[in-house]
Backbone:
């Protein structure tokens, strides 16, 4: 004997079905937004890496010809530009995607999560390229009898420490991209003046990651200025995780209630 489902039982079944449809749609929109922002950044990022190689090649050639080569060239170019490139792309990509994402059926929650995922993907992939380029340069330097050491403070001594170099760049690139995304959404949601005044707070994760890794042009002098001891890998990773969590939380707080402009054609 089959009973007809009526009343609360039938209603519960329909609610469960709608919830399943919403979850499926949210997962799909999360994947789509993550792919869109990651691929869009890499479309420009590919040219960024070409330019990095050209600049590094020119600098290296000049230094070899003038006999002033005294350390890594690749690391100087990459450490000074990769994270800032992603910072700028972090400002641009999310605000260019959010309205289309919601208009296509996505939610703020899926958009926030997709931005988190994009930050991790970009951090890992850009760090991988940076570490591989640094390692190749290290091999060439050793083969030529040149000094492969870095000319600035880093958590790693040279490009031969490819694992540590990858770790440093991964945290820098992820945090900088997310912080840029928070600033972009701050301008999107708060307007020019309030968005500008919010920048110091939105840059706190950048300050944390610089202090944690004490690397590059700013990190080490900054850490010395506030009296921090030399960074170690373990403490740097812990600090990096705190900075990444702070960047993710900052972006969430800025984006969760932002008014989204309608898509116009």
Residues:
């Amino acid at each position: 004997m089959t009973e007809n489902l009526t009343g609360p039982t039938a209603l519960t079944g329909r609610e469960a079905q709608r919830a399943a449809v919403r979850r499926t749609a949210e997962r799909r929109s999360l994947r789509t937004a993550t792919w869109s922002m990651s691929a869009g950044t890499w479309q420009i990022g590919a040219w960024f890496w070409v330019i990095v190689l050209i600049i590094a090649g020119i600098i290296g050639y000049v230094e070899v010809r003038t006999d002033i080569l005294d350390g890594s060239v690749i690391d100087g170019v990459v450490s000074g530009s990769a994270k800032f490139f992603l910072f700028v792309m972090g400002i641009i990509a999310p605000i260019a995607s959010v309205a289309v994402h919601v208009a296509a059926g996505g939610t703020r929650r899926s958009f926030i999560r997709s931005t988190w995922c994009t930050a991790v993907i970009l951090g890992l992939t850009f760090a991988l390229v940076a570490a591989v380029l640094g390692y190749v340069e290290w091999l060439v330097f050793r083969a030529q009898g040149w000094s492969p050491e870095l000319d600035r403070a880093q958590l790693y001594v040279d490009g031969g420490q490819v694992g540590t170099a990858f770790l440093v760049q991964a945290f820098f690139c992820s945090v900088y991209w997310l912080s840029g995304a928070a600033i972009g959404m701050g301008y999107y949601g708060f307007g020019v003046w309030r968005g500008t005044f919010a920048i110091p707070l939105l840059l706190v994760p950048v300050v944390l990651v610089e202090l944690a890794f004490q690397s590059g042009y700013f990190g080490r002098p900054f850490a010395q200025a506030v009296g921090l001891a030399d960074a170690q890998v373990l403490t740097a990773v812990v600090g990096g995780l705190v900075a990444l969590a702070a960047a993710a939380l900052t972006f969430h707080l800025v984006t969760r209630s932002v008014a989204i402009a309608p898509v116009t054609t």
Remarks:
- The first helix runs from residue 8 to 65.
- Residues 12-255 form one domain.
